[in-house]
Fold:
Amino acid sequence: MQVYRLPALSDNYIFLLHDPELNVAAAIDPAVAEPVLRHLRDLGTELVGIFNTHHHPDHVGGNRELIQQFPQLTVYGGAEDRGRIPGQKVFLKEGDRVEFAGRAGEVFFVPGHTRAHIAYYFAPAKEEDSGELFCGDTLFAGGCGRLFEGTAAQMVNSLSKLRQLPDNTRVWCAHEYTLKNLKFALSVDRQNDDLRIRYSQVQEARRQDLATVPSLMGIEKLTNPFLRWDAEALQSSVNSKDPVTVFARLRGQKDRF
Ligand code: ZN
Ligand code: FE
Structure:
């Protein structure tokens, strides 16, 4: 399974999964149809599925047009998003499995950014490979989504599920927010050497206009403040040891950053 990263709108990423043997493709969160259609033409392949993580327009905006072009495709989304995702046919909940070209994807229910948000995890096909996590606007490289329809407690629970994935899991998040996220991270976690190194790497990458997605779960665990509610440095920076309180205070600070 190949994963292609297609930039869209101002800072979104659409991901295109392609299986070269069966020659089929699926899109994750097509914000718009055009880059997907163009890439399908370049590959000479057809779209059999759309995997949506949540209902926001910058994630489902391309659904309708893609369905028009490929009427047989299946649209997947969270069960709680019923009525909010154009063309949705499959309603997924925690622990459900999806399939793309013979690869099984596991569904995590990860409310917080929205009340219906889900993530898709494709475990590695061979032991030496990495797994692929498509987490929409729940976990970002160096950050996490805003709480629009959920609570801090829900988000901590959601992020805890993702944090358990193997360190070499590739984290395909839906926005290029990494540099801003890490700027905030440094402001609350100054003594973190891994974070400082990552910040300068990301700064350099962005200077060259390179994408910083995918990230790796192992790096997120070391440097993302929204996965580090049990790190002492962050606990003392917001003056609490309770995971939900630590998270909520950090999220509040980031909202005003
Ligand atoms: Zn969103
Ligand atoms: Fe988004």
